[in-house]
Amino acid sequence: MSAAADLVAAWPHEFRAGKPGAPVLLTLHGTGGNETEIMAVADHIHPDATVLSPRGRVSEQGMNRWFRRLGEGNFDVDDVIVRAAELATFIAAAREHYGIEDLPLIAVGFSNGANIGLATALLHPDAISRVVALSGMYPFGDRDPLAEAGAEAGAADVSGVQLLLLNGASDQMAPAASVRRLESVATSHGVAVERHEREGGHGIDATELETARGWVETH
Prior knowledge:
CATH topology: Rossmann fold
Number of strands: 11
Distance between the termini: 35 Å
């Protein structure tokens, strides 16, 4: 086995080949979800797409997550950074293993999955450059890792990253203030951000899936 094959085999995930010419949708589940159920989102957004759906490898009271947290909305930012790097490595290995290196890839994440997708895009844009974030928020607390890396001349160029942020106005789990911070920090580094806010709270709304479908078609 190659190193890529070893890594892919060791990371729980689902893979479904799509039609020729269709993009890859990287589906990222929320807390307590899994790699199988989140794939249904891909069917609404681009039914012809190839789907790569890994499982978050952090467990919180038996629930799958992508990174540790210290409390509701209080993320372990150092762990976010480590897990984003791990996900970027997995994506590269999976693209090689499945022969999909040349297909465009778009991450579609819900809640905790949206957050790791956003973190990976901002820190590792070569792995993910486009993210549909459903009920996501700013994943770095009071820090800006891009600015920290920039001070050391090690920041990634995120000028090609594009984000679609889809949130409920009364979402207590992904507060509007955190979404605004995400938009502000991302755009300050040259990221293209499109943000839509609907009535309601945490979840996935049918209108958001239609918005995501249109955005994926044009990106």
